[in-house]
Amino acid sequence: MDFLNSMDISQSGLTSQRQRMNLVAMNLSHINTTRTPDGGPYRRKVAIFETAPYFSGARGVRPRLEGELQDCQVREVMEDRRDFKLVYDPSHPDADEFGYVLMPNINVVEEMVGMISAKRSYEANIAAATAAQSMALKSLELLK
């Protein structure tokens, strides 16, 4: 694996984790949204990751070699199909005739764990890119 491959793979990981962090932030911002344009409460969104064939803009797509790592990307953003929370709040404008409101299927603790995980993955990708850059610079110094 050469320097550019490792930098490209780290960059794809950074991009994927940024998208994941954006979804967590969006979920947390909609924690009390009981009415959406689609009707009903907001549904939690999650990123589905996949490995992708190695790609670098100028060099194009090439086949994966045995044992070689691949890029990471968000394949799709899915809605969490878990049931909504039913909360008793007769004063809420969206309460039914019995005083219950359907609330989004978002768990704050679960979202915070996702945010911490995305942050640590982001930091790991930065560390890998920094290490690759450092090794490349050391290699150049050896050629002097």
Summarize this structure as a short list of keywords or feature phrases.
144 residues; alpha+beta; two-stranded antiparallel sheet; 2 helices; 6 strands; 20% strand; elongated
How would you describe this protein?
By secondary structure, this protein is of the alpha+beta class. It has one domain (3-142). 43% of the residues lie in helices and 20% in strands. It contains two helices and six strands; from the N terminus they run αββββββα. The protein has helices at residues 3-29, 108-142; strands at residues 45-52, 55-56, 60-61, 71-79, 85-88, 100-103. A two-stranded antiparallel sheet has the order 1-4. A hairpin with a 3-residue loop joins strand 2 and strand 3 (60-61). The longest helix is centred in the last third of the chain and has 35 residues, at 108-142. It starts with a helix and ends with a helix.
